[in-house]
């Protein structure tokens, strides 16, 4: 693996010290249909470069199965040869969770992309793990239902990767993470056996809920091949407002007021820093509806399935009360779907436009919702002391305490010099997160990028339990080795 602008989070030598046998590709080709096994460099390249170009994979063999049976066959043959397997979905991850080494085989699930069943009466959908998230959303909508998982990468990310990383997104406040949206799973285990937990039951109290072991495990315990997902009533009314605020505590008060008045209709509550909005305006031509600049903004969405038009008055009443209480400095409510889309694009454009503003040191953190203002204050003071002039691009899901606390290089500082401070600045931010009983990874996962930090911040007893689970399900540590656990943990 190569291409990281900073030291790897783990020592590659800690991974299984095996090479790929010269005859493994031939054995795989003999057991699998034509087109499943790729060995030519030109065919493999797209699977070896990850989203942020921090790492480059080196797997000499890429597998593209179409069925669970083919996955199981591939896993069994690789396990018999002692060769590690790296499962990969849409390759949109941000922490190097699907990066492969030269002694590993990469298994892409992208051709397992069938939506097998939509059951609108049971409010469920059964899908293969290679289904693109946007296609799942469209299939639900065609059945007058909603699958609420929504991410910036939804046009290319796959549901298997979403489940393996327990993806979050903008609707967690109302619907929960990917874990809460899953009823059943089918998983290929490290020995090639298939666990069929593909049950479309809303209640099942017959023993351990094994699905929860695999959701969020980043492919280290098993390879998810199919899933039963929960659907919800389709939303027919959306009201979107952008609010200008003077202080993070005002955002917290506004969130409390919104939930107290509108309850579950509060679908999203996004926090946006002034600098984050500034770079979107600068690089996209988008404009905020406000005359002046404010320290902070909140994007609020109320949504429901009723057609009686009650959400618009609810939003107006909420903002009127917020103005009277001095919580909101200014606000605008979208008058049309186009205007609502324009407001959302201000939020959605942040990750791409931040790239144009210079190098970034990114943090996907969460703290208790009530501690978000404390975090923003402490982190702001600490990073400015550690690196004067650093520009803070903070945004994220205030409703669930998840803030993307990204640092953009100071003006006049070289990008390479800035990125050389990656680990030091991570420690500055993550120490504050730990002090607030927070998490260093709210929704992106651990992968290679944060494996070392997980060892630093995770409770030793918890790490021991995780290793014991890994040893029980994959004693040879051949499934996505090196990810999550760090040195010595597989």
From TrEMBL:
InterPro entries: FAD-bd_oxidored_4_C, FAD-bd_PCMH, FAD-bd_PCMH-like_sf, FAD-bd_PCMH_sub1, FAD-bd_PCMH_sub2, FAD-linked_Oxase-like_C, FAD-oxidored/transferase_4, Oxid_FAD_bind_N
Domain FAD-binding PCMH-type: 55-234
Cofactor(s) needed: FAD
Highest taxon of source: Bacteria
Keywords: FAD, Flavoprotein, Oxidoreductase
GO biological process: respiratory electron transport chain
Similarity field: Belongs to the FAD-binding oxidoreductase/transferase type 4 family.
Protein name: D-lactate dehydrogenase (Cytochrome)
Organism, as annotated: Muricoccus pecuniae
Organism placement in taxonomy: Bacteria, Pseudomonadati, Pseudomonadota, Alphaproteobacteria, Acetobacterales
